[in-house]
Amino acid sequence: MKFEGTKSYIATEDLKVAVNAAITLERPIIVKGEPGTGKTMLAHEVASSLGLNIITWHIKSTTKAQQGLYEYDAVSRLRDSQLGDKKVSDISNYISKGKLWEAFESPERSILLIDEIDKADIEFPNDLLLELDKMEFFVYETGKTIKAKDRPIVIITSNNEKELPDAFLRRCFFHYIKFPDMDTMEKIVQVHFPDIKKNLIREAFKIFYDIRDVPGVKKKPSTSELIDWLKLLMTDDIDAKTLMEKDPNKLIPPLHGALLKNEQDVHLFERLAFISRRENDNSD
Amino acid sequence: MFLNFFFDLKNANLPVSLKEYLILMEAMDKNVLDSYKIDDFYYLSRSTLVKDERYLDKFDKVFSHSFKGLENTSEVENSEIPEEWLRLMGEKHLSEEEKKLIKSLGGWDKLMETLQQRLQEQKKRHEGGSKWIGTGGTSPFGANGYNPEGIRIGQSESRHKKAVKVWDKREFKNLDDDVELGTRNIKIALRRLRKFAREGAETELDLDGTIKSTAHKGYIDVKMVPERRNKIKVLIFFDVGGSMDAHIKICEELFSAARTEFKHMEYFYFHNCLYDYVWKDNARRYNEHQSTWDVLNKYPSDYKVIFVGDAEMSPYEVTYPGGSVEYLNDESGETWLSRTLGTYANAIWLNPVPREYWDRIASTTVIRQIFSDRMFPLTIEGIDHAMRELNK
Questions:
Q1: To the nearest whole angstrom, how far is the Cα of B49 from the nearest Cα of chain A?
Q2: What gap in Å lies between CA A192 and CA A194, rounded to an integer?
């Protein structure tokens, strides 16, 4: 079982090595990186390239580790008991399975995506240590042990909002997706828009990387924003010439809303445009 | 070989453990890599041994050192060659005879090795000559000279165009611990300082309490609890003006990060050292100041106190009454600082000046003593340690 990247996802060499190591050794892999570099996408692409079923567990600040295993609905059992329902005698009627349980029980090997693990409480990863290591857990209410038939491939993404505990990290592979360079980016764009014009790409890239290099930009545009922007450029039928135009009145790139996501950044750009216009006027 | 590599990583203070080394061995054993290329091994070992992007740069350096047999890369780092040494100083024309002579030097690897050695030996600027690194000479190291096998240092384009090894590119350089400081990073560092507690209006259902009380009373008795909130309360004192002007940007970043991170945050300004008054608005600091006593009395002792300042002043400004540069203070800065520390058990000082310089500044040493060494550099790592200290 080997992951080689897919038609719609450009995987760099180091990413492939890390993912394959995780698959072979049946250990979780943690993927970190700037927002929009395709961390979550990776799991879906691995699933589709290996033809496996994917189970996604989105983590929120309120998510508890226990919810991934199972939840015991005490309230409805209490209510049923007052109504004299027969279900009450069997406690397993009130246990709902979590995502981990689902992944462990799946008849064939599956992929478990634990998305944005850093959103949860600091203790969250520690509570899953044993479960992810042994791929089994104990259900106290029924006294049964749930064990994975086929150890699922666990892919964990993190946005670095919290540090993960060392004990947890030791058991995982780690990959940091760095921001793609020009060449990789060109491949990525080719995958998404096979018939985009070469010169449009070139000009768009220049603007894109220029924006990323402007000091003081609060939210740097990422790959997914570039893709959205190119999509807009294509649907609006803007050609490379318009992008190349050095008209000082149009220093802000067309359809910049896709690239600049907060008003301070837009203001920053307007200010820069204003300054360069003034300089041009003076030199005339 | 790999054991040496592992211990090199340990010695470079990378947090690697035996467990991770064993995983790496297991991966090698199970033939995760289908080729024996060193690049693939580099990727595999990186993904097994490094678990935080801030260590990637260090890892690259150690990897390059371990698998090249070079002396020690970190020492070369310290003896960086200033660019202007190597800037164009004039071409030197050599006779055919001389050119032949130069050819006799060993191959590429030999050159790299020698360069490494010479970098370590040489500490001064050099021009001309035939051994040291500099400009316009016939040594193989330096720029704009003539040597058919030369290694160019500090020139726009390499003559050899030899592909740089991945780990030698050190692409992750700017992710190192104490380099980049943006508000987001600071926020994450500040987040260490959290203590959740239930306080205020009862808005959430307390399931456990409800069940217990229901079982106890025999009828459904709903219990509510307040929501969990971060109840850390912080008091920040900023040093402004004078020598702090150079650190305005970083202080602004810290300020805005702290603003969003802590719900209960109060801030005050002071100049150089804390005396008997502080103020909240720098534009009106002379009219609208508050007595420090009022501040100490107003905010209860469970507030965590952070001082931000470079602690750079004349030692008299700290230790003597009347030492302030601005007015005649009745009590010394030291008295005021100790008084504050007496009120608030959890207090630290963040210093934007790099730690290396602290020992050379008398006032910094004094203040550090007053704070019983609870002074931290204003870097991500420093804030991190500071927050741990405050949490104690």
A1: 8
A2: 6
CA distance A21 to B145: 47
Which H/E stretch holds residue B32?
none
CA atoms within 13 A on the CB side of A23: 22
ipTM beyond cut 0.85: no
For residue A111, the tally of other CB atoms under 10 A from its CB is 22
Kindly identify which residue of chain A lies nearest to residue B194, measuring between CA atoms: A122
Nearest one of A229, A257, A59, A64 to A159, comparing CA atoms: A59
Q: Model pTM?
A: 0.57
Taking alpha carbons only, the member of B275, B323, B320, B310 closest to residue B295 is B275
Among B306, B330, B307, B317, smallest CA distance to B363 is for B317
Q: Are B335 and B370 spatial neighbours (Cβ–Cβ below 8 Å)?
A: no
Residues 6 or more apart whose CB falls under 8 angstroms from that of A120 comprise A59, A60, A61, A63, A64, A65
The token pair at B149 is 């096998």
- Backbone phi, psi, residue B111, to 5°: -60, -50
Per-residue pLDDT tens digits for B336-384: 888 898 888 889 999 988 888 888 888 888 898 888 888 999 888 888 8
Mutate which of B44, B45, B48, B385 to test chain A, going by most A C-beta atoms within 10 A?
B48
In sequence order, what are the beta bridge partners of B151? B141
- The mean pLDDT value for A138-154 works out to 90
Q: Tell me whether A247 touches chain B (CB under 8 Å).
A: no
Asked if B44 lies within 8 A of A18 by C-beta distance, the reply is yes
